[in-house]
Amino acid sequence: MAGTVAERRAAAADPEGRIADNIVYFARALRKAGLRVGPAAVTDAIQAVLVAGIGTRDDFYWTLHSVLVTRHEDHAVFDEAFRLFWRSRELIEKMLAMLSPIAPAPPQKEKPRAGEKRAGQALLSSERDDLRKEEKPEVEIDARLTLSSREVLRNKDFAQMTAEEIAEARKAIGELLMPHDRVATRRYRPDIQGRRIDPRSMMRMGLRTGGDLILPRYRSPRRVHPPLVVLADISGSMSQYTRIFLHFLHALTEHRRRVHSFVFGTRLTNLSRQLRHRDPDEALAQCAEAVHDWSGGTRIGEALGTFNRLWSRRVLGQGAIVLLITDGLERDSIETLSHEMERLHKSCRRLIWLNPLLRFDGFEPRARGMQAMLPHVDELRPVHSLDALSDLCEALSTPPRARRAVATVNRGLGKPVPA
Amino acid sequence: MSEPKPRALPQSIDETVSLLNAADYVADRALATVLFLSLKMSRPLFLEGEAGVGKTEIAKVLARSLGRRLIRLQCYEGLDVSSAVYEWNYAAQMIEIRMEEASGVADRDVMEHNVFSEKYLIRRPVLEALTGTRGSAPVFLIDELDRTDEAFEAFLLEILSDFQVTVPELGTIRAEEPPIVIITTNRTREIHDALKRRCLYHWVDYPDAERELEIVRRKVPQANSRLSEEVVNYIQKLRGMDLFKVPGVAESIDWASALAELDKVALDPETVSDTLGVLLKYQDDIARLREGESARILNEVKAELAAAG
Questions:
Q1: What ipTM is given for this predicted complex?
Q2: In a domain, A166, yes or no
Q3: CB distance B97–A206 less than 8 Å?
Q4: A107 and A37 share one domain
Q5: Whole domain around residue A317: which residue ranges?
Q6: What pLDDT shows up at residue A349?
């Protein structure tokens, strides 16, 4: 049978062959590059190569690809790694020869070593990267109420969290009780006061008595937290609150299951994975590294546009709540901002705007950006003081007074109050 | 329709390509490779990609050309065991209990056995998929997995690793031969790594112009070659634009057949403007194209095709 071609090849392969070793090294290189390749995936890859046989470079590429890549984002990294790793020295051709039952493999000792060495180098260089993370002077500019759309790329270091702070953060998040933060699912749980009959349970219980007595049993829909998507502004005008947000996001990610965090200044960065790191300091350090536009300018509209286009369909499913943390000071096109806000509002279940600028007494949202955003939010929540994480939680926990808040603000603008 | 005879699985990547080709599915080498591996290694195939690139179609084509039954599990929010795996026919069970009481069956075990017998078991897709006999395992399509929730995903994890289901009242039902599993997702949510790890992953991308033209030619034979070429080139240009939702292959096919129905032999600005709704499903995108970009793209397409001769 033709199916045994690969098996014959495998059987004929030199037991001293280095294909398996090379795949292992390749997988390790991928892991270094950030792909999540577990030991099981490596075995699978070897098995897949044996099953498919090595026909051409392309087939080999896609064979490894199918096993080692599990996210579309990783494709580019794989592509590059493959090109580098299996590059010169006609490694694949040699492996072909090794696998081929006709041509016996010539002794190949030093060649695969090269791959090994390169993987080792990749390993070394990343360690060097770690060392290079030197202490950068903290750029701390109090830039409240100043804004620009200029793109300034800055790095940022965050002060480490003390043990008390961590404990406090956990406590605050644990007590965080956002209104409208439960949605009914279409799954059920047994409930004596439920309104729906649970036939499965009735039948099971009924048979305990031999079917003499089938009593009604009830169930009601299970309620869960919907996904929460946080979009936080990290531009210059918000820079003094950034640390608090990130701690908030980290604690939140730890506490609830479906949290997606994005930050934006002049560009949008997804920090969900970085924040999933257990240790808050480690998570924040990774965030600091991932974001390039700390305390820069603001392009809210554009950032929201990017979010709408690239992410909204991926993270806004299942009745997600969007929490937008920004001061709304936009310098770019107000039209874009209004348009993107409308789109965002229409694609999520609830849009909450948390605005730290409203803490200043007598502040009125005269900024055009704020005017553009206001009609499209479900709730506007001011934060009166934002020195600790608990303030943020408190602002989110107060019962909704959305209509009133929006109405007052609108009155301030001389706009008609929505009914 | 008579039950088609099950065919053996392809034995090489080339055979897989020709199998798909014979069923009018124009696949690239990458997809054929992954598909072959998944068949050969009996691993589920995890297909991710934008809507309308032919993910679901792969399962259908596979079932058709291998002569297997296609069992489809359409996922949705709140999908649970009773609609995915099995359910008991409660009404019939009640009657059974009454009947037994009337005929004086007193033994509780006997009664339980009769009430929870296969007769009253309603099989849902997952259970159906586990009933394949050797050499004719069905194709099990789990469509749009991203629409369901994590709880179901976790349940699926168990099925996909053991291919068995336990019905407490009946016992364990195990597949004689595991089904050919194809999972599709539109990426409206990230699927957990644990599930992906059990599958072979493939991102189904938009096809290049050449392959897309081949697809349109095969699927819409009534459109003439000039029209198909213009349609494909126009759509390829659209995909390069910054649109909210770019058209997929399904839209190309729809558009080509719509234009062919209108007896068009080539694209002209009015027709394009009138039929944009077939291609684009967001008002913003349509408005943007109507504002003039459409004419520009059309001119480019015409010029390029003229230059190519």
A1: 0.76
A2: no
A3: yes
A4: yes
A5: 228-412
A6: 87
